[in-house]
Amino acid sequence: MKEKLYTIPMMDALRENDECPFCYIERNLEQHALDFVLSSSAATYMQDDVRAETDAMGFCRDHYQKMFTYGNLLGNSKILETHMKKMLDEMKKEMKNYSGSGKQGLMGLLKKDASSDSSNNNVSRWIHKKEESCYVCNHMKQNYDRYIATFLILFKRGEKEFVDLVKNGKGYCLHHLADIMDAAPNYLNEKEQKQLRDILFPQMEENVERIIDELEWLQKKFDYRYKDEDWKNSRDSVQRAMQKLAGGYPADEPYQQK
After folding, report:
1. What three-state secondary structure class fits 121?
2. Is residue 253 in some structural domain?
3. Same domain, 29 and 129
4. Is residue 71 a contact partner of residue 257, using CB atoms and an 8 Å limit?
5. If you average pLDDT over every residue of the chain, what do you get?
6. 3 in a structural domain
7. CA distance 166 to 20
8. How many CB atoms lie within 10 A of CB 248?
9. Residue 79 half-sphere exposure, CB side, CA atoms within 13 Å?
10. Cα–Cα separations (whole angstroms), residue 77 to 84, 137, 139, 248
């Protein structure tokens, strides 16, 4: 298979033989975004166009924590300074023009969704809208969608090397399997979708059963009767089970500035 620039990350992820190639891709996208924003060698945080985007979008709670752990106090302080100045200007305007409709009715109080649409005042709506915005999440989402598309386009082409890698993989986490299934009708006809399901569904069953077996063996290793037995592949089965169920890498060390 002749690889092109946009197919290389997808093929590399499949070759890793990870529990989920899209978890691998998402991790790379997130680390690239952190490097892009905060790496002192690139000093992207000094570029006006990037600062304008980070000022407008801000970051989510999770990525603020990862930015702090990443390091580069100077870069973080510069990004936070200009973003907070923009937030302060907006906050002043919202508070000055406060408008609310009093107490919420019973149905409003019972709503579990605290999004901007269910807020009764402009200040809360503004805050909720800001909470939904994150520069790193946006970077990941835009690129991740392209990789889902690439995966399905390569499957449609029937490239032997690609299809073999898919068939011989360990499946996907449930989160990313849903994304593949949701996007498939946009790229594959009914026959092709069935061909994909015929690969992925048995593969998922087989690999979930594999991890269950590993978890059961891990538990046996805590029984003195099995203390001299080999651990097999069970040592890291807990974090791989968590990944299979929800995605991500729960055992990853914090990603830090190099």
Report:
1. strand
2. no
3. yes
4. yes
5. 91
6. no
7. 11
8. 16
9. 27
10. 10, 20, 21, 28
Q: Is 6 within a domain? A: no
- The answer on 48 and 131 residing in a single domain is yes
Give the residue from 145, 142, 146, 163 showing the smallest Cα distance to 154.
163
Domain range for 76: 18-101+115-136
Residue 138: exposed, middle, or buried by beta-carbon count in 10 A (0-12, 13-18, 19+)?
A: middle
Burial group, residue 63, by CB count within 10 angstroms (0-12, 13-18, 19+): buried
Please tell me the distance from the alpha carbon of residue 14 to that of residue 165, in angstroms, as a whole number: 6
Cβ(64)–Cβ(80) below 8 Å? no
Q: Which residues, in sequence order, are CB contacts of 225 under 8 Å at separation 6+?
A: none
**pLDDT tens per residue across span 210-258:** 999 999 999 999 999 999 999 999 999 999 999 999 999 999 999 999 8
Neighbours of 145 (CB within 10 A): 12
2 vs 19, higher pLDDT: 19
> What is the predicted pLDDT for the residue at 119?
73
Return the residue matching tokens 């952190």.
34
Tokens of 30: 């997130």
Domain-located, residue 201: yes
Give the pLDDT mean for 69-91: 95
Same-domain status, 124 and 157:
no
Q: Across the strands, what pairs with 100? A: 121
Structural domains counted in the chain: 2
Shared domain check, 125 and 39: yes
DSSP secondary structure code for residue 175 in this structure:
H
- 130 & 153 share domain: no
Q: Are 19 and 121 in contact (CB under 8 A)?
A: no
pTM: 0.87
pLDDT-derived band at 114, boundaries 50, 70, 90:
very low
Q: Are residues 129 and 172 in the same domain?
A: no
